[in-house]
DNA-binding HxlR family transcriptional regulator (Paractinoplanes abujensis), 141 residues
Amino acid sequence: MTSPIEQSCSLSQALDFFSERWMLQIMREAFQGTTRFTDFRKALRIASDVLTTRLTALVEAGVMERREYREAGQRARTDYHLTGSGQQLALVLAALQQWGEQHLPSDVPGITFSSAAGRAVAVRFVDEDGAVLDEKDVLTK
């Protein structure tokens, strides 16, 4: 049985929202620049109805937004873009990928996170003074 604290915990809510495998895979594609429905479908090999449901959930949560576009001679269509809230998930995805690269290595490349200068970046705990902490020095309550 889930405790009332677990039911209202923001971590639990975030895990519930992103627990379905397609959600994070859609986010991965969005961070790699995919915006169009057909491109998400092709990259992920996902059924249209499943993709529609997941994209709708991401839009309703404020993680993505719909934008209309029209190619010359074509009808108006909708594509999907990360919002500021969605962009903040880069840190989460980078941390998951960093852990996966260390503990579940794969030959398939993930998202490339780098600084504006093109230098590799890593996710770390940083205290309020800006000092980088080792994971073993971070306490939880």
Q: What stands out?
A: Residues 4-137 form a domain with the Arc Repressor Mutant, subunit A fold (CATH 1.10.10.10). The radius of gyration is 18 Å. The longest strand covers residues 64-69.
